[in-house]
Specification:
It contains 7 helices and 2 strands, in the order αααββαααα. The chain is mostly helical and about 230 residues long. About 55% of the residues lie in helices and about 0% in strands. It has helices at about 15-20, 30-50, 55-85, 135-145, 160-170, 180-200, 215-230, and strands at about 120, 130. The protein is elongated and about 80 Å long. It has a two-stranded antiparallel sheet. The protein has 2 domains: about 15-170, no CATH class; about 180-230, no CATH class.
Amino acid sequence: MKLSSSSDGNKGVSESDIKDIASCSLKSTRFSDLLVKTQELVSTLQEQCKDKDDQGRIKDIAGLIEKMQKEFNVLKLIEGYRTRGHLFTKTNPVRDRRVHGPSLALENFGLSQADLNTVFDAAKMVNMKPSSLADIIKHLENVYCQSIGVEFMYIRDPKVQDWIKNRLDINDNQPNFSADQKKHILKKLNEAVSFENFLHTKYVGQKRFSLEGCEAAIPALDALIEGAADRV
């Protein structure tokens, strides 16, 4: 997008520029670049508002600026869930998790309860059609804050990040296993625990690595190996 020039040599913003930015180019996967570009345009629009005599025009631009800022607040909310959602998962059936701050409350992202019914184009970033903020939050809660925690935003390769994001969005990170699959997973968990107990009994006092707390890795590795074998 290019800013047009006005007759006095100052930079201006054309109608096409405004429409282009209003859409926020939400297909972009570079959130930080997109945010910087829009903030620059917002500053330009605000400067224009100071010199405009047409109050109706100023009101329209002000509304557009507010809409864009809200869109990017929703994008920051999505980024917050992806970065810190694993801290708020329901992975302990015995007690509630330790409280982490700051939380994922709307107020921490420049949003409020009044925005819940507003439709945002930012939903496209989570493979949804333009949706209300309430629906976006419901999707994010299902994907990042249920019984499966996912921590992946530290990965430096954007392609790997995008692959993980797209895979999580397919089924809201809530796989629907059949009864036979669940029995197979339980069998592998029991085998892992049984083998752990055998080693503990057979080799008392011997230094060894323990599976305690990581038993779920066994059925996961089993699924990985079986899946790889099927693709050979």
